[in-house]
Amino acid sequence: MHRTYSMRQSRAPTASQLQNPPPPPSSTKSGKFFGRSGIGHAMRLKTHSALNTRGPELSKKLGQLVKMEKNVMRSMELVGRERMEVAQQLSIWGEACDEDVSDVTDKLGVLLYEIGELEDQYVDRYDQYRVTIKSIRNIEASVQPSRDRKQKITDQIAQLKYKEPESPRIVVLEQELVRAEAESLVAEAQLSNITREKLKAAYTYQFDALREHCEKVAIIAGYGKHLLELVDDTPVTPGETRQAYDGYEASKAIIQDCEDSLTNWVNSNAAVSSNLSTRARTLSQRRRNNIQRNAQGHDLTGQDQPLNDNESGLWVPAEVHKGGDEYEDEEEEEEIAHSHQGSITNGELRGRQEELA
Amino acid sequence: MHRTYSMRQSRAPTASQLQNPPPPPSSTKSGKFFGRSGIGHAMRLKTHSALNTRGPELSKKLGQLVKMEKNVMRSMELVGRERMEVAQQLSIWGEACDEDVSDVTDKLGVLLYEIGELEDQYVDRYDQYRVTIKSIRNIEASVQPSRDRKQKITDQIAQLKYKEPESPRIVVLEQELVRAEAESLVAEAQLSNITREKLKAAYTYQFDALREHCEKVAIIAGYGKHLLELVDDTPVTPGETRQAYDGYEASKAIIQDCEDSLTNWVNSNAAVSSNLSTRARTLSQRRRNNIQRNAQGHDLTGQDQPLNDNESGLWVPAEVHKGGDEYEDEEEEEEIAHSHQGSITNGELRGRQEELA
Questions:
Q1: Residues B307/A277, Cβ–Cβ less than 8 Å
Q2: Is the dihedral of CA A177, A183, A189, A191 positive or negative?
Q3: Which domain holds residue A256?
Q4: CB distance from A106 to chain B under 8 Å?
Q5: What global pTM score does this model have?
């Protein structure tokens, strides 16, 4: 387990690190959204490079995660495929051996092949998790234009007030700013709500899939050990021949039992438990109570109504936002189109097949 | 599950397959050890290509398996590494989010990183399994020369009897053949014993490692779901800010609980069981009883004595056999050297590091 219980480097710097600080970051290459270089500069940079295929700053980190997850999927797929090949090769080798070794290796091959198939199924479910994470990336990308617009109008007002303080356009722009701010408030609330909803959905899905996969593979491993007991490993002396093998029915029954166990596995009878200690349970419960109390403190029903015609309460498709189609990502263009068209929870949406084809 | 409960294509041919049989195998390119072309031909071929880097026919299929397992290991290693990278990227993304999302994604990163580390540990254990399978390949390779020698002498005797039936060398060769046959009987018994012993050891080890790995990952998945409950996903209305996050202690306690569960996991309290049905249990028990009865039928203690100074009863290192060093495999030369020098069960023998370096 990571020592500090955090992936972030939050440890205090060592004496040596304090003595030799890293060089200061280049002020011309900052590229940071929130930084000393000011928001306006970052905005202008972004506007000028509208044809650039990189997504807006806000969705960049998550876009990177989505890409990295694709690599994980490809590697897992490779493991599954190679495992199936190994299973076949084990059976091929065993074929020339004595009857018991031959039968058991063939059946072991069946079990290993099954692990490979489970791995392939897990990759499909991993893709579902990834598609859900993508929907967070998309909302991040769609919120950016509304931030941009607010900033742009604020800039224009400031410029006009400096150059032509009497211009009638200032009033028009100020009204526009009020509208932009309202839009931005909605967008930020959407971002907050969708991010949480989808984050929980994505990882709940991933962890459930992972648990199912792991328990099933552990079941197979157990039956594999039963199979091994059919091999007669009592040593023979030179010239002695082994007794005829009488385990064909037994090995077949073991495989059948294994298949039944896998077929009947449901989430509700998962064997591995992850119980919380008293301390963790108390702390978690306190947190959940607070969440619930806050939720009850407001009557949200009236306020939510105007947006309720959309799928997730506050969700507005990215293209509804002005400039929402600005987000482009060469590699993933097709996939974004998918997630805009169809619901994220649509079971038939399998990015993987098209991507890998 | 594989329909036929076998990896082998034992199904009856279809009408279409019977109508269009595959072309007959080329008689000049046979390459088969046991076939119509006769053992002598295969032997001569082998002798002439002694400098060929391919191993003897007998260990070829298993040599192939060993190579394929190396690929499985590399792919699994890749998955582990990529999973760790993904864990870090998730934390990086979460850093800019609200406090609760930031804390939970960071802690999720810790759990995912741990999965990656477990995968890496599993690869190490997979390598141990693979090294054990290699020892079967090595005994297969070492038995080959003794088969060859017997055949060679038999051929010489037949040739002499035809060309010079009165030659005094025939008697000498016949005595030599008796010795070669004795050697061969020992070699075949060794092959049978080592194959069974190591096959059971290798797969017992793999299945135990797999079970441990799977149960631990399932534990992590469970704690991951506890973490997700700390995220406040009650929707906020535009302009509303969320309550301050109070879950830092809770998330830390969850991670600590998870770490404790992983640290205290032992094989004996494995949660996933693979119980046999009554039928499979009866059949398996019958088979085991038969094995035991046969083992008791002989008093092997006296016969085994001459070889007892070796590690596994009948095991003789490959190089003791005349021509045992004939087996070569460019890619794996170094590894063979390893497994000749050290015991297979030596925990410090890790082919993986050197191979991948």
A1: no
A2: negative
A3: 56-232+245-267
A4: yes
A5: 0.75
Which pLDDT tens digit goes with each residue over B32-61?
A: 333 333 343 334 334 343 434 444 678 899
Whether residues B1 and A231 touch (CB distance < 8 A) is answered with: no
The ipTM assigned to this model is 0.75
For residue range A151-194, list pLDDT tens digits in order.
Answer: 999 999 999 999 998 899 999 999 999 999 999 999 999 999 99
Taking the CA of residue A168 and the nearest CA in chain B, the distance in Å comes to: 30
Closest chain A C-alpha to B163 CA, distance in angstroms: 33
Give a yes or no: residue B259 inside a domain: yes
Separation between Cα atoms, residue A98 and residue A245, nearest integer Å: 9
Structurally, how many domains does chain B consist of?
1
User: What is the pLDDT averaged over residues B95-109?
Assistant: 95
Give domain status of residue B31, yes or no.
Answer: no
Q: What is the pLDDT of residue A335?
A: 47
Residue A180 is part of a domain; what is its CATH number?
Answer: 1.20.1270.60
The DSSP code sequence of B67-130 is HHHHHHHHHHHHHHHHHHHHHHHHHHHHHTS-HHHHHHHHHHHHHHHHHHHHHHHHHHHHHHHH
Q: Does B139 touch chain A (CB under 8 A)?
A: no
Q: Taking Cα atoms as reference points, which of A352, A331, A327, A330 lies closest to residue A340?
A: A327
Cβ within 8 Å of B, A 311-340? 313-314
